[in-house]
Design goal:
The chain is an alpha+beta fold. It has 2 domains: 284 residues, P-loop containing nucleotide triphosphate hydrolases (Rossmann fold, 3-Layer(aba) Sandwich), CATH 3.40.50.300; 54 residues, no CATH class. Helix content is 23%, strand content 27%. It has 10 helices and 19 strands. It is globular, with a radius of gyration of 22 Å. The chain starts with a strand and ends in a 6-residue tail after the last helix.
């Protein structure tokens, strides 16, 4: 299952409608590792400071706030509606592709947990619609999707109908309701700006990353990972006086990992932690993924995500050194501008050939259009 298209309007700094269209694939003969099933699989979003790169990622993960019980960050809840708009209603639209089926799920809110409306369509046909203000909707097609036996008497007022259907029905995995719920349960947004592990979606409880590595006997694997990505340090575990286990850099005198690790190594720790969960993740958004990475390390991480994993991955970055047809392709690089989101392929009339220097074109204003 893939996201085909995502749109948001009136959320935080996005007064106008912003759309990321994963199906807008061009006919480039290179960079095919970034495309899967006719969809963009790997994307990098660029934008100036305060353009809204973080907000766009939070918008994409907003769906996890009302459909599933997963972790959220306070930043996603505050200043929810656009401050320059007189309309408090925020609109979201997701189009999913599941084999030969296409699902469109639209909803509107006035806050992270305050639904205004919900609509679900399967292959262009209504599954249900509901207006929470008027407390009415279209449920005439529920029987077609085996949703007609629900007991509405005990539904919590204001709670998502899609969630209620999923939690109170026995549905096949290919039912649009269960398919969407399963996919959303595996969506993840995270960032690593030095120490800490800010994330949204995927899990409900925050877990200590070092404890996770020690508990699962991943110390040697983590050391090999660090070495592969440029940190050639031996690490070891020792039990402290209180019985807990602590990770150390292994020198003549042991140095506690968590206090001595550089910001770049801390960022690698966060990436490694989520990297070990990738088999269960359905969609991944990493904000400022390379904020503390050397340019060679950033490129290696991009290639790892391109070549070894089939899920859709969206990264944000300021590193224009990654703008290369050798790494990705023009329809996979996006610019977040003041009134829309566009791929490099759509930001110019020039035919962007393999040999073109995309970074130089960007710096020279080719995509300012």
């Amino acid at each position: 299952m893939f996201i085909k298209k995502f749109s948001v309007q009136n959320y935080k700094n996005f007064k106008k409608k912003y759309t990321l269209d994963f199906s807008d694939v061009k006919d480039y003969p290179y960079g095919k590792q970034c495309i899967s099933n006719g969809m963009i699989k790997n994307a990098i979003i660029y934008g100036k400071n305060a353009a809204g790169k973080t907000n766009f990622g939070l918008a994409m993960l907003d769906i996890t706030c009302h459909l599933v019980d997963k972790n959220a960050i306070p930043e996603s809840f505050v200043n929810y509606s656009n401050a320059d708009s007189s309309d408090p209603v925020v609109s979201f639209s997701y189009v999913f592709v599941n084999d030969s089926d296409e699902y469109r799920y639209d909803y509107k809110k006035t806050g992270a947990q305050r639904l205004v409306s919900e609509e679900l369509y399967c292959n262009g046909r209504v599954v249900f619609t509901f207006d929470y203000m008027k407390q009415q909707g279209d449920f005439s097609h529920l029987e077609e999707y085996h949703l007609n036996t629900l007991n509405w008497k005990f539904r919590k007022t204001g709670a998502s109908l899609l969630r209620y259907m999923a939690n109170n029905s026995s549905l096949d995995d290919d039912n649009p309701v269960s398919a969407i719920m399963g996919y959303v349960s595996g969506m993840l947004w995270f960032r690593s700006l030095g120490k800490g592990n800010d994330y949204m979606g995927f899990m409900l409880t925050i877990e200590d990353m070092i404890d996770y590595i020690i508990r699962n006997d991943y110390v040697e694997d983590f050391q090999a990972f660090l070495k592969e990505y440029g940190v050639d340090e031996a690490i070891t575990v020792k039990q402290s006086a209180d019985g807990s286990y602590v990770l150390y850099f292994k020198h003549k005198n042991l140095i506690p990992f968590i206090s001595a690790a550089s910001n770049g190594t801390q960022a690698l720790l966060t990436f490694y932690y989520w990297y070990k969960h990738l088999k269960d993740i359905t969609f991944l958004f990493i904000d400022e993924f390379d904020a503390f990475y050397h340019y060679e390390l950033a490129e290696k991480i991009v290639k790892l995500l391109e070549e070894k994993y089939s899920i859709q991955v969206v990264l944000t970055s300021h590193n224009t050194g990654l703008l290369s047809n050798r790494i990705m392709r023009p329809d996979c690089y996006f610019l977040l501008l003041k009134d829309h989101l566009t791929s490099l392929a759509n930001a110019t009339d020039r035919e962007l050939r393999m040999g073109y220097n995309l970074e130089k074109l960007l710096r020279n204003g080719e995509f300012d259009g």
